[in-house]
Amino acid sequence: MGTKKPLAVAFLIQATFAGMVLLSKAAFNTGFNTAIFVFYRQLAGTLFLTPFAIIFEWKKWTPLSMPTMCKIFILAFLGITVAMNVYGIALVYTSASLAAASVNCLPVTTFAFALLLRMEKVKMRTVPGVAKVAGIAVCIGGVAVLAFYKGPHLKPVVHHGLEFGHSSNHNDDDDDEGQGHFSSGKQILGCFLLLISSMCCGLWLVLQGQVLKIYPSKLAFTWLQSLSSTIQSFVIAIAIKRDAQDWKLGWNVTLISVLYCGMVVTGGTYYMQAWVVAKKGPVFLAITTPLTLIFTILGCIFLLGEAVHLGSVLGGILLVISLYSMLWGKCKEEGEDDMKNQNCLPVQDEPKSSELIVKPISSSGLL
Rounded CA gap, 361 and 176, in Å? Predict the structure, then answer.
């Protein structure tokens, strides 16, 4: 299979996440509560996955022990419930571009956790090892450029995009003057929450690879995580908002966002994530996250008609460089390891003619 198919699936995952950022930001701009939003999207994802789990996994359903179920429940709480709720609050305090840029911290956190758990290694004296470390450094530099440097804004190709999801008090006259500018307190809090969300997702990806070794049914594994997160998210949402008016969904961008995030992201993308993690490991998936920012910027240009700043372009270029630097280093190391394994295959010596070979007899016959 190689790397092409997992890489193509990883590209599709990041494009789907970019749509999630844009639609979620549009829904939150209408004033919809983030905790209720997370519950609805998890509920939609669970309902969407249920028939597929029954049809495709019913006959080959892996027996589920109580310790494994507890691990899946904790995994869903860490990587979905906590990460999505924290990310939603941060998205309210920041912009879609900054939220998408912060996701690029995921390769760093995932790689750090993988190193701590001895799932990854770095050979600093080799070119591939240096390339992997350099990719992380360039990734951090790209995120720093996006966060702290705006530069002059570039004229958008589309001047009138699909301007949906704006709150009623949004003033179009202030777009050129204050778009993307937030109070320092909110922005610092938002960035801190984005970092927490990224750390939760990084640890989730690493631990997910470990759990999949003992519970390899990826579709059932995804459904169980989604169901667990739905229960957890409902408890959090009902504790925060108990007014029935806050739970109502209208025929607007919020409903579209819930269905998209639930069916496409929770229902489809989490399964694809589990597939990629099982095939190539958690770091392979994490290093494709810079694409989410690029796809988000393209969505802002062609769908929302928003101006893009020079800092976003420069940061995006750095993130693409970091992506291919880490991909090249990882693939090169895997290729070298495969060559070493082939060269180190044990060779059995031919028996001499004078030697008498005696094979043991088992109760079932000859071995």
Answer: 85
